[in-house]
Amino acid sequence: MKQCILLGVAVLFAFLFMCSKKDAKISVPYPETVKVDQVDDYFGTRVADPYRWLEDDTSAATAAWVRAQNAVTMPYLEQIPFREKIKNRLTELFNYPRYSNPFRAGQYYFFSKNDGLQNQSVIYYQKGLDGEPQVFLDPNTFSPDGTVAINLAGFSKDRKYVAYSLRRSGSDWQEMYVMEVATRRQLPDKLEWLKFTGAAWKDDGFFYSRYDAPARGKELSQVNENQKIYYHKLGDLQSKDRLVFTDKKHPLRYFSAQTTDDERFLLLYVSEGTDNNELYYRDLKLGEKGFRPLFTGFNSKSYVIDNLDDQLLVQTNVDAPNHRVVLINPRNPEEAHWTNIISEKPELLQSAGTAGGKIFAEYLKDVSSRVYQYDTRGRLEREIELPTMGSAYGFSGEKDDVVVFYTFSSFTFPPAIYKYEISDGKTEVFKRAEAKFNPEDYETKQVFYPSKDGTKIPMFITHKKGLKLNGNNPTKLYAYGGFNASMTPYFSISNIILLEQGGVYAVANLRGGGEYGEKWHQAGMLEKKQNVFDDFIAGAEYLIKERYTRPERLAIEGASNGGLLVGAAITQRPELFQVALPAVGVMDMLRFHKFTCGWGWIDEYGSSDDPEQFKYLYAYSPLHNIKEGVPYPATLVTTADHDDRVVPAHSFKFISTLQEKHRGANPVLIRVDVKAGHGGGKPLTKAIEELADKWAFIFYNMGISI
Question: Which of 165, 302, 560, 621 is catalytic?
Fold first, then answer.
């Protein structure tokens, strides 16, 4: 693996690009990726892994390979004649003020705001609803390139202090710091090697989750194991923090802490993956040292949303696949003694929260929000009227709040923040996004199409009013289909680029998601994962059959688990799509559990360590189902060097195999971002660059000029 040869070839390719005519079809000479003799035996099935060396994210050879690939991809994208025009329009579209929901912490209201083109949104606070907003934390001052993201992690009971977490370059690793709210005085406290945690306050400190420091150079790839709960007292060095909980017998579990707002109870959540959990508690008022069980067995999802004195208000799917809210006396926690507060409905209870002494229940009805206000005994007080079909979120706050704020948006409805008076239900617009497009020019409809086995799958379709169904419209189909995640109607300013060109944007709500509760989720996980791909392919076929588009004008996109979806779709039905955009995808289904937090997905996917699960994983694993000599869609794989959730080796090995075996004129490329991760916290500058590249790639490979 000669680094200098790879780089030399890449420079030659870049030179050839520069010499090409801009109006000519851009050809792509790929770097030759070295293969090694690596074969694994899975229960008698021998599986070659010739690009195993690309799993070493810190090697000089891998770094040289990334540079060589980018030296091919970036000139290709830059020579698309209208890429700069798309970038300029995206910059114009993003340039409007964007706000988050305000929330109250003591006498202050907090919210975030982006003036338009700031890399990171700035956190503001103000005294009371009528106070003058002041900058509380500005992430843009933490790094010149905007690659530091900040999140408020938890307030002390008296709201005097707040812990905040800091993430660098898109990594999931967190550092945690503490500020005094009124003065913005930074305390000396600094905590490191945190991941997937908040700050659960008790007295003059807080509980948090952390890992041992990883081996140097393996911070972004080493398996995350042996997570522990610590208590940090303000002013102490992290080395003095008290170990509260560890489980050496189960190193591959997540442990997180929560305290109730009155600091009466310490709650311990335990999970073996991303789905079900166990739940334990400690009554801090009684000075208990151990944890008592509330839910055990990892066969349900249960979360404490509040406590009413010595009882716990819990959202659970125990004997209720669509969830319900119950009141539990922790001293007598058996189900027979629960009090049903909000019974299960035919619709999914997506979340429940409390504010002002009320319960707010957010439901999904055919993937659109419905919100209801209840008293704490479960008596329905009112349904909250929402503007149209779309997504609402918020509806949580402090026990003595008199107003709450919520955000509503849809595909052509930019996010609007509403102020809601809890006593009488009066609602008024608090902030409305002023995006630079006319929503009245577009429409969204919801359709239900049959999948391969006849199951009806919902899909939202958005386009200009008066669109002609002539089979010629550029169309992008997006989906996720996993981990109980619901793809509800949401606003993305980036999609205006497509809609302005007379295009169609479709979002399919596949099985494996949470749109219709746990049964819908289970119908698309483990050995039933193929249902997800069938649902997606059927969605594409519906769009073609109904003459929204044709294969030559159809692009598909998905990220993370959605990247797996796109990878599986193009390896199973390559002729159905013109363009594929798999982002930060899980592409190697035989080895995903060997990196960082990948083991946490075994309950969703299964594991190649199990002989039965290996069979179905191998049958659809995108990496292992690329066939020699097949013409695949134009493919732009995207990943980033600091992605420590779905490590970039997935994308590296996938594109190497695709470049080796693909035959045809369509380009198959990879774009590797630097100082970026799985997507969260990405600075706006980087986001616009990537979006411009994706849209340019889509339109160019559809033969459309903008």
Answer: 560
